[in-house]
Write a structure and sequence with these properties.
Rossmann fold, 22 strands, five-stranded parallel beta sheet, 467 residues, alpha/beta, binds iron/sulfur cluster, OB fold (Dihydrolipoamide Acetyltransferase, E2P), pyruvate-formate lyase- activating enzyme, globular, five-stranded mixed beta barrel
Length: 467
Amino acid sequence: MAFDNGLPTKKPDTRPPSPAPRIAFSTLGCKLNLYETDALATRFQDAGYELVPSDEPADVYVVNSCTVTNRADRKSRNLLNRAERRVSNAYAAGTPSDQHGLVVLTGCYVDSHKDALESDSHTLVVPNEHKHAIFDLVEAHRHGEVIVPTGSVFDFPVPSRVFHTRTMIKVQDGCDNYCTFCIIPFVRGRAISRPTVEVIEAVREAVDGGARELVLTGVNMSRYRDGNVRFSGLVQRVLDVDGDFRLRISSLEPDQLDDLFMDLFDHPKMSPHLHLCAQSASERILLAMRRQYTFSEYRAVAEKLRARKPNFNLTTDIIVGFPGETDEEFGETLRAVDELEFGHVHTFPYSERDGTRAVRMPGRIPERIRTERAAEVRELSTTVKKRYRRRFIGTTQRLLVERVEENEDRLVLRGFGEHYVPIRVEYSPTTASVPRPPAQNEFVDVQIAGIGDGTDPVLQAQLSSSH
Ligand code: SF4
């Protein structure tokens, strides 16, 4: 034993440094789930974990689940089974017990199947209210400790651009509307708004960190309230933050949108896009769904937005085959999809959710009819989407570069313009008017020259000479 100043010197630790623990995420569902995964991934990465794809060996598998439809339930179970199989295979292969791996199941599937799910030595079941504490829960578990989660549903770090170029900012959670088809209030809880000061702090941190596009996200943001600050007041304050960024709203209910909110679309940072959930164009069906607006009110909001910005990108959600929906009522929805020229339509065949009121309603529509109606809306909305996107040919867009791909002797830049329409630009060093190709997370002005093929046609563009 060697001594130094009388103190035994520690033999140099010649063992190879323990490799960074590996973590994999699988995420289903809404923008809020995507945000929460991005934020959790940032937390683990900052703590030295290595992010790996979910089909690779990992020490921790996080499944951020969804329960909004039966199909989402099936997918959540499949992801859980796959992750658990990976862990048990490691076990069976005789991997040392401390490296067997851990599965963390969180998200809305947990809250809708509480009684059927419980944690064990290899699976941590974490409900939405504790999702923000997953890093602490995993660290405790890996060190054989048990902790009681603390903190609020907003205690997530600002996501670094691990998975997405744009940065999502959570401003609200939960919902009190109880639409008759919807399970979300049962799994995300009562509506709660994040304090405005916290939102502005997160926005500043993101902008200082280089974020160029911010997306406000929540469950029912139009109901945002912090003292006398309503959603429009919050958006106004975000737009007032210094920095070269643009702001987009992820998804919104069409009620509660005041005139101030409409005026905000004149602000240069505000993206002229809104995902405004219509669900149906039939007044009788909207009543049966217990939606908080009539379709004529919805149409009035859409027309106000288009009067202000003719190429405003309005996207929406549509449910078909809701109990009692007649052919005529379905026809009303089809006509509205055409007339309002939605930039994109998420179409859902009605899906029974246990615990919701619609499950007990008469007039059940056969699955076959629901599927046929959904296919009809999808086909029409693809035609309408192409018609809408052709409006941009000959215009200039401000592209935020999200991906730069090498393609033989040129680069292909991909991203979205301010209207949230996908754009593709080819950059050839030999012909480009600018010596340096644009980089990821950079704004570039582009000239829209054409439109691609397929059901999600991408705008084809060239770099503007002003770039
Ligand atoms: S507004 Fe309706 S559809 Fe949206 S989350 Fe709330 S209950 Fe569900």
